[in-house]
Amino acid sequence: MENNQRREILIAVIAKLTAKPGHEEELGAALTDGAAKVLAGEPGCLLYRVARSRSEAGVYKLMEVYESQAALDAHPNTPHFAEIRTALAAHLGAAPEVEFLDALN
Amino acid sequence: MENNQRREILIAVIAKLTAKPGHEEELGAALTDGAAKVLAGEPGCLLYRVARSRSEAGVYKLMEVYESQAALDAHPNTPHFAEIRTALAAHLGAAPEVEFLDALN
Question: How far does the signal peptide extend, from start to end residue (chains A, B) (predicted)?
Fold first, then answer.
């Protein structure tokens, strides 16, 4: 491997998930359950934080970092991701908004 | 302390910083320098990631988590924050947008 092998850029994801009215608590619970599965099952996922907005009712943000494009590509194809998607579907009021970023540290 | 003492809620912050045109690289460098100072100088800061948007030119997002309101309140009053603010000022094209959230994990 060359010494100046460019360190693979870490990939960050910020996702916005909006609850169906009346499903705010359930969405939060499904997201934190899902986070535990991701962190346990995906060593390439370096960060997976669930946070509830204080300014937008029923809105949650996910803060994620993956060690490589391969780790990010594998994420939606894991068995637990299918479970998470099913669990979330009942409580989402809008399609998730997902932003991809280059993590710099 | 009561047993059912509610665990202090972790506070998450997602901040959007937009570079002055032509200052994109300098803003990124100033942010990553600042991140190193925060992580070294603020034990109450549990997460401080700098990421560059892949969809919005010149936009950086900060993903931060603090262990308590006290840790968050202390953040802007640290000596290094004043240095960071000065370093950023020359490269910002708009006022930072800051969102506060309750971190759930």
Answer: none
CATH topology of domain A20-62+69-103: Alpha-Beta Plaits (3.30.70)
Q: What residues does each domain of chain B span?
A: 10-103
**Is A49 within 8 Å of B103 when comparing Cβ atoms?**
yes
Which residues in chain B have their CB less than 8 angstroms from residue A26's CB? none
ipTM computed for the complex? 0.91
Q: State CA A35 to chain mean position distance.
A: 7
CA distance B12 to chain A (A): 7
pLDDT digits (tens, 9 = 90+) for A19-43: 999 999 999 999 999 999 999 999 9
* Nearest CA-CA distance, residue B43 and chain A, Å: 17
Query: Domain B10-103 is in which class?
Result: alpha beta
Averaged pLDDT, groups of 10, chain B, 105 residues long: 57 98 97 97 97 97 97 95 94 98 97
> What Rg, from alpha-carbon coordinates, does chain A have?
15
Per DSSP, which regions of chain B are E strands? 10-18, 45-53, 59-66, 97-103
